[in-house]
Amino acid sequence: MRLIEELTENAGQVQQQVLMEILTRNTDTEYLRGFLHGIRDVHHFKKTVPVVDYEQIKPYIDRIANGEPSNIISSQPVTELLTSSGTSGGQPKIMPTTAEELDRKTFFYNLLIPVMNQYVEGLDQGKAMYLLFVKPEMSTPSGLTARPVLTSYYKSNHFRHRPLNKFNIYTSPDDTILCQDSKQSMHCQLLCGLVQRPEVLRVGAIFASALLRAIKFLEDHWKELCMNIRTGEVSEWITDDRCRAAVLKVLSKPDSELAGLIEMECSKDSWEGIIKTLWPRTKYIDVIVTGSMAQYIPLLEFYGGGLPLVSTMYGSSECYFGINLKPLSSPSGVSYTLLPNMAYFEFLPVDHDCSTLGHEDDQVAQAQALSNGSLDSLQTQVVDLVDVKLGHCYELIVTTYTGLYRYRVGDILMVTGFHNAAPQFQFMQRRNVVLSIDTDKTSEEDLLKAVTQATLLLKPHGYILTEYTSYADTSSLPGHYVLFWELKAKGRKVIDREVMENCCMAVEERLDSVYRRCRRRDNSIGPLEIRVVQCGAFDELMDFCVASGSSVNQYKTPRCIKTKAAIQVLEGMVVGRFFSREAPFWEPLRLIGNAQV
Ligand code: AMP
Questions:
Q1: Which Gene Ontology cellular component annotation is one that this UniProt entry carries (predicted)?
Q2: Is the pLDDT of residue 375 over 50?
Q3: Cα–Cα distance between 434 and 443 in angstroms, integer?
Q4: What span, in angstroms and rounded, lies between the C-alpha atoms of 357 and 350?
Q5: I need a surface site. Which of 114, 131, 422, 573 has the fewest CB within 10 A?
Q6: 314, 335, 404, 412: residue to mutate for ligand 1 pocket, most atoms within 8 A of CB
Q7: How many angstroms separate the CA atoms of 226 and 556, rounded?
Q8: Do the beta carbons of residue 205 and residue 212 sit within 8 Å?
Q9: pLDDT mean across residues, the chain
Q10: Which atom of ligand 1 approaches the CA of 336 most closely?
């Protein structure tokens, strides 16, 4: 806690030191040399190095994936590539990382427990039931591993050989977390969690969607899990040897009493408060419920039966950003304090409604500025960490130790206060993302492309799509995308079910690979639904929006609606509901660099 105080009291100096250190190490990289020409100076950096999007650094990362040396962007060797849930050209973005970054992540994780201890007593008196998972990894043409950031961390020695102290004992043996088969991993982790029920003090996963997936799994498989507990045997389909052995150690003997108790609770009609019932000593639920995960709060509150929902940290594949110093604050009041030693942070002011100031225009302006050598567009607008203003919104820009320089993360944050000199931020939204159920991030543009493609199927049947909008329906698990479509028919026609179902599938086929993976492999997104509405429904929506404050002149149909009331307007005019009949195509083979791997 003293360290947090020191870092936040000296946020400005720490940030300058971080930038100097990054520059000292990396001025001679090909990327920075092109702008700095060997001059290691903060002002020069700010004047000459452009604020960039992924597209601008992608060629450098691809070159590393294809075997060129790391010093294109980083003086330290790039040890692996992290596949982000953000996509570029329909494929996951890949971020460079270095061995040293694992130390930084470990440092970051180690700060979370002391903060929590200040608010919740006795966390050393039991265990954490954290459901953590790894995902498959790939290898790039140069032999670098590419995998998600958490997979990288859980497989690292930093995690596997973590010094065990009273605060980081998990109910899931590492071998169950590291099991590649997500179904076996889930079954085994839940089994271990149930068996160690009396010891569990906190329940969690990284994101709310993952915890809800676990609850759904429990709903579907509790009888089998109870059978395992009753017999002291693990189901035969658990074939991962290490996983099996690890679970058998936990499940040391048959326990029909525990099995009976769990069966009794799980067979009740309502699962309200099930987490508290099954793990009665639980003090809080540790899951991120900010940003797109906020849509899951009602469901988690239902299952949690009043347990506090705690979002402890904010981070990404690019780097870990900040921690929540008031973990028991209500989900809507969560703010993250960015740790000034993690990276060099800058902030691009955005409109108060949190739309970036003319993002597309910025890009054009920047491209022009780059070509005529004057970099005066985005660079001049960005401000330092300690210069952000209370109540203002910004897009986060990072310069990392791992080879990203003035990189637009794409997250929009609002300043809600300060801890010492360090600002605290509420996560507002991801730039350009309109729909998200799990790790998928669908932009308005992605949606438009997918819908446009699907409407080609309507044409031969004499329909035209006149308006559409969407929302992420998370009222049941797994959540799914809902599109409201208003159709115009040439002549009087009955809506053809098969055509509409084909449209649902066509939309899904065109959404990006993260969406398709969640749908096909992870089952974390349900079949996409199109709800056809009566003619005039979108006029009603417009009337509603105008009555709620939108300007008539500037009104544009929102491509995603978020409020219950707006959804209700269209919902009342639905004339047909259609679902995708099968999950879209997805294959793990992806293009990294220039080669199929
Ligand atoms: P990825 O690169 O796949 O690891 O995703 C990182 C992104 O997830 C961040 O840039 C945010 O958009 C989102 N994210 C991570 N942590 C949080 C959080 N605590 N609250 C809201 N969004 C988050």
A1: cytoplasm
A2: no
A3: 5
A4: 5
A5: 114
A6: 314
A7: 53
A8: no
A9: 91
A10: 19
Q: Which of 475, 500, 478, 498 is nearest to 487 (CA)?
A: 500
Mutate to test the pocket of ligand 1, among 427, 441, 513, 515 (most ligand atoms within 8 A of CB): 427
Q: What is the pLDDT of residues 525-569, one digit of tens each?
A: 999 999 999 999 998 998 898 888 777 767 878 899 988 999 999
Query: How many angstroms does the Cα of residue 4 sit away from the middle of ligand 1?
Result: 22
Residue to probe by mutation, ligand 1, list 81, 211, 287, 288, most atoms within 8 Å of CB: 288
**CA 337 to ligand 1 center in whole angstroms:** 15
Distance 314 CA to ligand 1 centre (A): 6
What spacing in Å lies between the alpha carbon of 240 and ligand 1's midpoint?
31
In one-letter notation, the amino acid at residue 178 is L
404 touches 96 (CB < 8 A):
yes
Which tens digit of pLDDT belongs to each residue from 29-54? 999 999 999 999 999 999 999 999 99
Q: What is the pLDDT of residues 222-235, one digit of tens each?
A: 999 999 999 999 99
3-state helix, strand, coil in the chain (%, to 5): 40, 20, 35
Contact 542, 555 (CB under 8 A): yes
2, with CB counted inside 10 A (0-12, 13-18, 19+), is exposed
The atom of ligand 1 lying closest to the CA of 410 is 10
Q: Which atom of ligand 1 is nearest to the CA of 430?
A: 12
Sequence spans of domains, the chain = 2-78+343-431, 125-146+166-282, 434-584
Q: What whole-number distance in Å separates Cα of residue 186 and Cα of residue 183?
A: 5
pLDDT mean over 161-170: 86
What mean pLDDT is predicted for residues 329-338?
Answer: 96
Count CB-CB contacts under 10 A for residue 475.
Answer: 9
282-307: average pLDDT: 92
pTM for this prediction? 0.86
Residue 370 has pLDDT above 60, yes or no: no
Phi/psi of residue 563, nearest 5 degrees? -85, 145
Going through 492-539 in order, the beta strands assigned E by DSSP cover: 529-533
Q: What is the pLDDT of residue 582?
A: 96
309 has which bridge partners?
Answer: 285
Contact 336, 425 (CB under 8 A): yes
Q: What is the mean pLDDT of residues 363-377?
A: 49
Give per-residue pLDDT as tens, 434-478: 999 999 999 988 998 999 999 999 988 888 888 899 999 998 889
